[in-house]
Amino acid sequence: MPSFQEIAQRPQRWLRREMLPVLADLRLAIALLLLIALLSISGTVIEQGQTLEFYQSNYPEKPALFGFLTYQVILATGLNHVYGTWWFLAILILFGSSLTACTFTRQLPALKSARNWKYYQNPKQFTKLALSAELDTGSLNSLEQVLQKHRYKIFREGDQLYARKGIIGRIGPIVVHASMLLILGGAIWGSLTGFMAQEMVAQGDTFQVKNIIEAGALARPQIPTDWGIKVNRFWIDYTPTGRVDQFYSDLSVVDLEGKEIDRQSIHVNQPLRHKGITFYQTDWGIAAVKVKINNSPVFQLPMGLLQGAANGRIWGTWIPTKPDLSAGVSLVTKDLQGTFLIYDTDGKVISTVRAGMAAEVNGVTLKVLEVIGSTGLQIKADPGIPFVYAGFLLLMLGVVMSYVSHSQVWALVQGDCFYIGGKLIDRRYFLNGKCYKF
After folding, report:
1. pTM for the whole structure
2. pLDDT tens digits, residue range 413-426?
3. Beta pairing, strands 364-381 & 195-202
4. Does a structural domain hold residue 182?
């Protein structure tokens, strides 16, 4: 009857004998890498993190894309947020396990074998080398001088010599594996702890990140609660033809008491970064308009985006011209340049004004004072990015190291014979079985 210790060791033996060879199989690693690449391509082609209405309009049931890809398939399989799904993370973990198994079962033993060298004391040992020669004359001293010129590290004991260089080439694959594990770890950590949010904020308003559209299972501690963002100003630069050239937001990071901590003007490709959270300029809109009717106080009226506009986006609002709200006009604009069209209740254009100008409508003087823009911000946090960047730098270093060949040379003087051989050494040292350099 087996002892308790033997029973406890059975899972360990099963892992070593059965699981490790399977995980360390190069074919499995290649298949997983191709699968990860394919899924990453799908995450690039299929828009990520969009609304249900977006997927319903772009991936309808009839006709289905490629005959099968509909919004129902996308939502059911998680293709709308590929990089955060459990199955994608599981594949990354399996690929990382394969790399780890290969490192411990192949790369580290190969490095250990390269470091644990020994002298060749038997001429038969030289016949097993890739290059070898038996000479009638030869000198270990002359051989040592040649090897020193080629920067070999030389070990000598009596009539035996061993030399090597480029052992860093054996370390290179291990560094490559370590870098890939670091990249995978960073990607998994970012998926679990990162989040993405979107906010549309009017000029002058302060907000905290709340409109989360995608978040990992451990993302809550990353969402800031002790500071917010104030939009000091939003403006747009236009080209001479009237097209949008660039839009800007002047943002301040403020604490809960409104005290400014940091300030920066951002635009597309120039975000604000604070405590690991990045604020990107991605959109814009028109939030409100300030108007005055006759000698009334200044009114700030919200402007809404009108649906079904044929030529781009159009914002509009309704302005009452009588105290009982029985009459009024519609104010419409398409940009922040301050040109407004005024429509009556029949939908006819009755006047055109710019910011700072006034118009007579329905027996009153309507003056447009200011257009208030709103900035569209995309907020992202990905704590795994530093690990991914470090992994890529380490990967490039490992690739360069892997190109260095690990060369080894053995030599033996026995009687009147001089034996020499090596692995991955320059073939110019040998010609027709004779070593002419030495």
Report:
1. 0.73
2. 988 888 998 887 65
3. antiparallel
4. no
